[in-house]
């Protein structure tokens, strides 16, 4: 297999490259998240470290999962239960904590391959609610044909809700997906961005609040 190894530690990367080559795999090495995103589409398997110099590997994992079903095993020093759950919920097929034996890594890779490739969920590229149009690919939002300028985080919140219109998303779920940290639920960051969405679009009903639960995409009335 052609394996993408995303690891910034040169010594570990060298050892893993040798082990993978010994088992007949061709290794492509990347030390940055941006390179992982660029190369993931051309390989058969991805081994992904989370502590990368240019960003959190979880964000890279989520972005790869939006467009690819390539098998991914997270290989990291993060041992917390919350880290493991976040990795698996973000789309990893398995989670392996450093240090580990190369024989265990090979066995886990074989197990993931045996399970087969997951189906990539069919998701709309453009979502329309009332007179609001959300283009998920181009990251453009228009209201009654007028383009609305949103911040990156405002659009990410709206896009997360728009991918499954009508589905209620919990506060921690949104914060984990957009900010990468569900503990931000103690702050008002999400509320501020939702208020910004309502104000900038002029559609207060675009994002509905369900007290004690979370948010969902509503069907706003034209003003």
UniProtKB/TrEMBL annotation:
Recorded superkingdom: Bacteria
Single biological process term from Gene Ontology: regulation of DNA-templated transcription
A Pfam short name: Trans_reg_C
Residue spans binding DNA: 124-219
Occurrences of domain OmpR/PhoB-type (ranges): 124-219
Boundaries of every Response regulatory domain copy: 2-113
SUPFAM superfamilies from the UniProt entry: CheY-like
GO molecular function terms listed in the Swiss-Prot or TrEMBL record: phosphorelay response regulator activity; transcription cis-regulatory region binding
One GO cellular component, as annotated: cytosol
Phosphoprotein among keywords: yes
Residues the record lists as 4-aspartylphosphate modifications: 49
Keywords from the UniProt entry: DNA-binding, Phosphoprotein, Transcription, Transcription regulation
Keyword Endoplasmic reticulum among record annotations: no
Signal sequence interval, chain numbering: none
Protein name: Sensory transduction protein RegX3
């Amino acid at each position: 297999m052609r394996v993408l190894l995303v690891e910034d530690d040169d010594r570990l990367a060298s050892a893993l490259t040798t082990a993978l080559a010994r088992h007949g795999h061709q290794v492509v090495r990347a030390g940055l998240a941006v390179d992982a995103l660029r190369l993931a589409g051309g390989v058969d398997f991805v081994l992904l470290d989370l502590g990368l110099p240019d960003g959190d590997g979880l964000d890279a994992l989520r972005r790869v999962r939006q467009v690819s079903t390539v098998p991914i095993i997270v290989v990291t020093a993060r041992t917390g239960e919350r880290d493991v759950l976040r990795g698996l919920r973000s789309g990893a097929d398995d989670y392996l904590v450093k240090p580990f034996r190369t024989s265990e890594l090979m066995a886990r890779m074989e197990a993931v391959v045996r399970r087969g490739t997951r189906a990539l969920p069919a998701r709309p590229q453009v979502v329309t609610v009332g007179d609001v149009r959300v283009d998920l690919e181009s990251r453009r939002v228009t209201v009654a044909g007028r383009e609305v300028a949103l911040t990156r985080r405002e659009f990410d919140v709206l896009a997360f809700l728009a991918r499954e219109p009508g589905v209620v998303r919990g506060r921690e779920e949104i914060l984990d997906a957009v900010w990468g940290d569900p503990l931000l639920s103690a702050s008002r960051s999400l509320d501020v961005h939702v208020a910004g969405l309502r104000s900038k679009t002029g559609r207060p009903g675009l994002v509905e609040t369900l007290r004690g639960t979370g948010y969902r995409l509503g069907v706003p009335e034209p003003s």
